[in-house]
Give the backbone structure.
Amino acid sequence: MDPSKRRPASHDVEDIASAKERGWRDLAPIDDAYRAGDITATEWHAAVRGVIEQAYLNGDNPRAQSGHSGDESRWREARSLLVDLLPPHGGTFLDIGCANGHLMESLTDWAAEAGITIEPYGVEISPALADLARTRCPQWAHRIWTANAMGWKPPHRFDAVRTGVDYVPADLRGAYVAHLLDHVVAPGGRLIIGVYNEERDQRTTADLLRSCGYAPAGTTTRDHRHPEIQYKGLWLANA
Ligand SMILES: C[S@@+](CC[C@H](N)C(=O)[O-])C[C@H]1O[C@@H](n2cnc3c(N)ncnc32)[C@H](O)[C@@H]1O
């Protein structure tokens, strides 16, 4: 049967949620507390960091230190589609939430294989992870900042900027995208959203962006090992 036609049975729902977002169980109560008004946005960021920082630092390989549980080939499957979203002429690339810097390294190599030269930069909300990135990638240490990207104004803007919309609380996602387009992405540059894991027949992230007034200029997908999920990414053009 065509997997895209199969409706998820109720016992699949947890499985799909788990495939979509690693750590979803731990993060849901933080979202609930924010939605209920029990914590502020600053406390939301601190609580999310509290969940992921130590888990990443405990990782025994570069992928785990970036929040990915698979091997090298799975890492490539899950992230290399970002190459499709880069400007064809390359240029400066900022990884928001660079963790230990492994995506900066990998994407530079994968882009080069496609004939695209990027100059990678990173920003990371966790000081410990940013330090790890600077130690692992000493050649780029001066290009890795510690900051919350929401509100951060870098010393210069970038041709391509990658982020997840889930790096801020749900009600601040439109404001986050506006901030990045106004202060972080260069005029004429690209804001890349992804990689996010989503049901193949859903457009939740694209629809959220459209509801905030941002129409994707391009999209890409790859199959996930879970038949109902795809790895997805999209980009927004900065005027
Ligand atoms: C899943 S990892 C991404 C690692 C790598 N960039 C990738 O795409 O595979 C998400 C990272 O984003 C960082 N992060 C989350 N919210 C952030 C924010 N508002 N500003 C900067 N970094 C943030 C987290 O600390 C974490 O290291």
Observations:
- The mean pLDDT is 92.
